[in-house]
Specification:
There is one protein chain. This protein has about 400 residues and is an alpha/beta fold. The chain has an eight-stranded mixed beta sheet, with helices on both faces. It contains 14 helices and twelve strands. It folds into three domains: about 35 residues, no CATH class; about 130 residues, no CATH class; about 180 residues, Rossmann fold. The termini are far apart. The protein is globular. The longest helix has 18 residues. Helix 6 packs antiparallel against helix 13 and helix 8 crosses helix 9. It binds S-adenosylmethionine. The site of S-adenosylmethionine has 19 residues, from helix 5 and strand 4.
Length: about 400
């Protein structure tokens, strides 16, 4: 159409035909209903509390752990608390975290997904532990701009405040582009209990995402894959954003020398912001805290993925009563890409592509696809014989 014709429509002097609205909507990647009539078919994001989710029971669990002299404070408890969730967001504004965040290879990731997902394929982006969902929203916007039409955004998080921000951020996009958004407040460890919420009437390709190192903070990543993601369909994708190991070596002194956190190459500002976040549940829920100190150690025994090591943060709390308590307040595992890929294959996730990013390539993104794991090759079982005695 002519520029003059378009101007007349913009000024409201000419009412376009439905066909013209449709073509304009296609060219601008907008929902025709919204462009022509201000209507949006999917409406605002839908928010659901997942069946069985009980925040009060989780808080009771935290308080019971804090009563003891020692314990492990799972990540869940940090994000359940809105003040901790707020401190986590402040941490992201710290320059070192910020530069890592902005180096994320979104364009490359998009090219990989673009090649994998056919134009006509109905597709869901499922953000597991999505937080404020900035990356999930960027991803779905980019898929939309690449002519993918039948899309849905499913956001799952345990934090009311972070999920609230994610819902607000996705709202306008959802309205203008007719992309339904479903926000789920819940625990991803219980995912199979409500996986029916993630399935539509017809088969859809799902792309599960775990951005922001969430997978590496899990107590046991292999159990998570087996318990929470075993139901996922053949052909679905999993994108993990992880810290890479600073060295392939398993020698403790070499790891201590190379890892930026363990060798204290990161500034004091980085450490104090991270420690503030990690100790929140202790400082706010224990009575009479006089001092709360964190120290960071290398842990090679708690890692289940071959080649990985953990940076573990341990807090010592001195109370006014004279009592001292010690808690593990966070793990961050680091992975050797080849060994991670080999192990993920055994767990039923085949590596499609991997990307490195950030200063010294500390960030690692792996794109995996679900396949049926082949039975492990082993020795043929011996025919049963009766053992004497
Ligand atoms: C390290 S943050 C990453 C957030 C986000 N993906 C990003 O890249 O900015 C971890 C996120 O996982 C969420 N989370 C932690 N444990 C969870 C659980 N058991 N179930 C659901 N969400 C969880 C937290 O609330 C938080 O938003």
């Amino acid at each position: 159409m002519t520029a003059q014709g378009l101007q007349l429509i913009e000024k409201g002097r000419v009412v376009p035909s439905i066909e013209t609205v449709d073509r304009l909507a296609q060219a601008t990647n907008l929902d025709p209903g919204w462009l022509g009539f201000g209507l949006s078919s999917p409406g605002t994001p839908q928010i659901t509390i997942t069946p069985g989710f009980d925040a009060d029971a989780l808080i009771a669990e935290l308080l019971a752990t804090l009563k003891g002299p020692t314990g492990v404070i799972d990540d869940v408890f940090k994000y359940l608390d809105p003040v901790s969730a707020h401190e986590w967001r402040s941490m992201l504004r710290q320059p070192d975290f910020g530069s890592l965040f902005s180096a994320f290879p979104m364009a490359e990731l998009m090219n990989i997904l673009g090649d994998q997902i056919a134009t006509e394929q109905p597709c869901d982006i499922v953000g597991l532990g999505c937080g404020t969902a900035e990356r999930e929203i960027t991803l779905i916007k980019k898929l939309r701009s690449r002519q993918r039409r039948d899309l849905r955004l499913i956001l799952l998080d345990i934090s009311v405040s972070l999920l609230g921000t994610a819902v607000h951020a996705s709202d306008e996009f959802s309205r203008t582009h007719s992309v339904p958004v479903l926000a789920l407040l819940g625990d991803f460890h219980a995912l199979p209990e409500y996986s029916h919420l993630l399935t539509g009437d017809s088969p859809r390709r799902r792309v599960f995402t775990m951005f922001g190192y969430t997978f590496s903070n899990l107590d046991n990543e292999v159990q998570f894959l087996r318990r929470s993601l075993a139901w996922v369909d053949h052909g679905d994708y999993l994108i993990l954003d992880l810290p890479a190991a600073a060295t392939d070596s398993s020698d403790a002194s070499e790891i201590m020398r190379c890892d930026p956190t363990l060798s204290r190459k990161r500034g004091t500002d980085w450490h104090s912001t991270a420690f503030q976040f990690l100790t929140g549940p202790l400082r706010r829920n224990l009575d009479g805290v006089m001092e709360c100190k964190v120290h960071t150690e290398l842990d090679q025994s708690s890692c289940v993925i071959p080649g990985s090591y953990a940076v573990v943060n341990k807090a010592t709390v001195k109370l006014r009563s004279g009592m001292e308590k010690r808690f593990v307040v966070g793990y961050s595992k680091r992975y050797v890409p080849e060994k991670l890929a080999k192990h993920m294959e055994v767990e039923g996730w085949r590596l499609i592509e991997r990307l490195h990013y950030g200063p010294q390539n500390v960030g690692l993104v792996v794109v995996l696809q679900r396949h049926d794991p082949r039975p492990r090759r082993g020795r043929k079982p011996k025919p049963e014989t009766e053992h004497p005695g």
